[in-house]
Amino acid sequence: MTVFTLPLQPAAKRFTMELPKEEGMRLSELKGTLLNVDAEITSVSFDSKNTDKAAYFCLVGTKDGHDFAKEAMQNGAVAIICERRLEIDLPQLIVEDARASLAEASAKLNGNPEKKLKIIGITGTNGKTTTSYILASIFAEYGAKAGIIGTNGAVYDGKHIDLRLTTPDPPQLFCILREMLDAGVEYVVMEVSAHALALNKTAGIVFDVAAFTNLTQDHLDYFSDMSAYAEAKARLFTPKMSKTAVINIDDAFGKALCESALINTVTYGCLSPADVFAIDLKMGVGGLEYVLNLMDDIAKIKFCMTGRFNMYNSLCAAAAASVLGIPIEAIAQGIKRLKRVEGRYNIINATSCSVIIDFAHTEDGLRNIISSIREYAPAKIITVFGCGGDRDRAKRPLMGAVTASLSDYCVITSDNPRSEPPSAIIADIIKGVAATGRHNYVAVPDRREAIKHALRMANEGDIILIAGKGAERYQDIMGVRHPYNDGEYVLKLIEEQNI
Hints:
Blueprint lengths: L24 E2 L6 E3 L4 E2 L2 E2 L9 E3 L11 H6 L4 E4 L9 E3 L3 H12 L8 E6 L4 H15 L3 E5 L2 E4 L2 E3 L8 H13 L4 E5 L2 H5 L8 E6 L13 H9 L7 E7 L3 H9 L3 E5 L7 E9 L2 E8 L2 E7 L4 H16 L4 H10 L8 E4 L3 E6 L4 H12 L6 E5 L9 H12 L2 E4 L9 H15 L4 E3 L3 H11 L4 E6 L6 E4 L2 E4 L2 H12 L2
Parallel strand pairs: 4-5, 5-6, 6-7, 8-12, 8-13, 9-12, 13-14, 14-15, 20-24, 21-22, 21-24, 22-23
Antiparallel strand pairs: 1-3, 2-7, 9-10, 10-11, 16-17, 17-18, 19-20, 25-26
Helix pairs in contact: 2-4, 3-8, 3-9, 8-9, 10-11, 11-12
């Protein structure tokens, strides 16, 4: 497969790992060329301002970490891991890839928990979170303890850890894996983002199952084009990274993955011949049901979330669980027992209308959820949505076009504008709406006011879809994360205004 040159890492919040055990490791235990003397390592960091008693890794991104090595030394670094020799009086290890070495060190310092856990990696533009929660429910039905790492945070043994990134940076990731292992977790379901794959965040993990959901446009602010985005995801489906692949054969890129995969592959889908497929699909406001054919084992499936795309999510989870030896009875019951995924198709019933909270934040995601609502919506669909700032601008008009085309009315608003003016983001979205020739929208930049507007205009039987943020508990404005959650705000309005 073609190798693409990847863009640099955007700025991210730094995390310094504190070793959760007494012993450390020697610098010389990492692959590379040792300069000066060896050193004992008990923690790692890639933030030059936060390196007290830590080994500092020079990562190359939007900034070059090598330029900050002296600052790291001044702040207490005990060793430097770099990709070129530096004129600095500290033990140095020169490596080919500092990012991969960071993952290697993080794993070693935590006792290599990845080798003692069964880990399922899920990648794709949409569906990762829902699929991961379905899998965790299946494992629970099977009697096994599972952990989840992804967009909604890290969840295990009744605990929840907020994460700023879908796939955490290696110091935090391997700390979490170690904590899960110590808590008796057997299976870990991890969302593996394209960014994480491009940046070698999961280097050293050999996934027991790698699952692919779908590929649609997103993150082109980071990746040069769709080919680079796809290539990043394809890295997961190689013998170095995974043992078995579970792939959506109905997706065009999924089909290409199947043709090029060098590992054992199980396919799922409904439009092409597949190992795992569904027949007799029925959908309604209360969820969906279908007959599952799991490599010629048959079971009736009931799932609390409606929409054809959620059928695909459940097929993906069923196929991955089957690869791991989970019997079909536990798979069917596990899917049935899951009653809710936070921020995914969450329904709130008001007196006069219903409100659905969902994370849909791409053209494809919006098309899927609005189309699924349309199959049972008794009256109008009013969609409240925006698009994140400082991210892929090309998808904004696409989101505007598909939402205006499929909704009866749109309220265009803010969704994590970050450093951009909300008005500029909304203007990009409106370009797509205008291209449809429709005028079924209003722009209300303040998200709270936009939701109020939608609720005021809704009539009995209407459905309001509030898309884009899902379970997020903040609004990112000018670098500050202000506390906010769509679902909590809607409930507050319903109570205050008796809607």
